[in-house]
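ok so i was messing around last nite and threw this chain in just to see what happens. nothing serious, just curious
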Amino acid sequence: MNKVTKVIIISFLTNISLSVMQIIAGILGRAGAIVADGIHSLSDTTTDIFALIGSKISRKPADYKHPLGHGKAEYITCAFISLVVLFMGIMVIYNGIFDKRSIPNSYVAIVTVITIIIKYILSQFLINRGKKYQSNILVASGTESFSDVLSSVVVLVSVLLSQLGHYYYIFTYADALAMIIVGALIIKIGIKLLIENISNLMDTRVTDINYINEIKKVVSNFKEIENIDNLIILKEGPFYKVDLEVSLNKNMKLINVHNILEEIEDKIREYDNNIQYIIIHPNPYKGD
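result:
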């Protein structure tokens, strides 16, 4: 079991526990907003399942039909996750508009505070591990989990305001308003994730200058390299693809050029083993 899978399983178990706690508390406490928030947490378990599937597929080795591997399966999975998030947001808004007005029991505020703390810890854990393991799936899941934190804060405020409904009827709408706000936040996150991952499907170029310069440094260490003519690094799911053009002495023997390029490939992979695909184009050096 790889590290990404372990993190996803932790997220899955946490979200299951939270959603059950929220839904039960919401039903018993007559808090539609916290039930909606619990359903949102439950939707995270669905995204975790798809994340597990996507992570497994994206790490499959290259084959005859997929010479660059299956890395883009990660982006397809993340795009599907975003569609699930959008659907859940729409359903939450729908329920907020058409559900009956009620005043939640005050004890659900305690459940909501606990939920906020756990969700925040989980979201930061997923995002940090996603960046560490260079996994878009974990970052996407962590970003979506952070939207849960925001939605739970809205739910907490609505529960507190709803208590004033005993004195002023207008505050009985606080629960419904919270559901609509939560739904809007969910939809916003879903749209953002969808746009990002559709963009990644179209071969997004790595723009991290520090990372690019480190690759250039590895190549420049070879005295035979006269110049780095071009360097393009593309993200292929959990892996990278490097397209490199270098200039060498035009009088070098082909076998020597071949050997040098192979050594460069080995050194680049030593620097980052997530670089799985390397294409190097040798050019004759035209300088003095």
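not much to say yet. Strands lie at 227-236, 239-248, 275-284.
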